[in-house]
Amino acid sequence: MSAATPQRARSAEAKKERERAILDAARSLGATRSVREVTLTDIAAEVGMHKSAMLRYFETREQIFLRITAEAWQEWSAAVRAELGGLATAEPAAVAAVLAHSLVARPLFCDLLAQAPLNLERNVSLEAVYDFKTIVLAEVAAVQDTLGELLGIDRPAAAQITTTASSLAGALWQMAAPCTQLRTLYQSHPELSHAVVDVEPTLAQILTSLVIGVSAQGR
């Protein structure tokens, strides 16, 4: 084995460091192209490992991106709760604007929100799915608590807002197809202009209507 070839991690600390390097490499690749286009071979090359060696740390590429998705949920949850807590008003448009902007400001997260249920949860062990869902549900509950307190609504109403915001962000992001040849096609042909989705204002408008609706029901 040459000196340039990464050695197998022996200690628990070294294993964690190697896992982090793999996650960072996958995150970097996913941020520059669609997650669905990133292969295990791509990630291995980015880290400087053979693909077979990657399997000592993660079951599949899907497990790698599922871990990244869980971390992205934790990061977004903490950030959006802080932003919502700093609002001077609980006006529906203001709440919706914070939710929409916080999601669109995280392109990789938006991509992962769509990929997780469609692909990432389908090629991993049930244990990996359980761990992922446990983390996500805890973060979702925390956001719901913040929304409930801010808007004076119950948990089911707050759940409607949180679920709609995250699911629509993922769907609209796929429709918008940013940084892809599809997006270039849509923009270069006027007859296809209806296919050009501006995610943030579209999401904010829908969420404003939803917040108004659930707030009215809660009164």
Structure description:
It is a single chain. With 219 residues, this protein is mainly alpha-helical. It has ten helices and no strands. It has helices spanning 12-32, 40-47, 51-54, 61-85, 92-104, 107-118, 126-151, 155-176, 181-188, 199-218. Helix 1 (12-32) crosses helix 2 and helix 1 packs across helix 4 (61-85). The longest helix is centred in the middle third of the chain and has 26 residues, at 126-151. The protein is globular, with a radius of gyration of 20 Å. It starts with 11 loop residues before the first helix and ends with a helix.
Specify Rg, calculated over alpha carbons: 20 Å
Structural class: mainly alpha
Low-confidence blocks of residues? 1-5
Helix content: over 70%
Terminal CA distance reads 69 Å
String of helices and strands:
HHHHHHHHHH
The general outline is: globular
Beta percentage is under 5%
Mean residue pLDDT? 88
What is the total tally of β strands? 0
Question: Biggest sheet: strands, sense, closure?
Answer: none
What's a concise summary of this model?
By secondary structure, the protein is an all-alpha fold. It is 73% helix and 0% strand.
Task: Give keywords.
219 residues, disordered N terminus, mainly alpha, globular, 10 helices
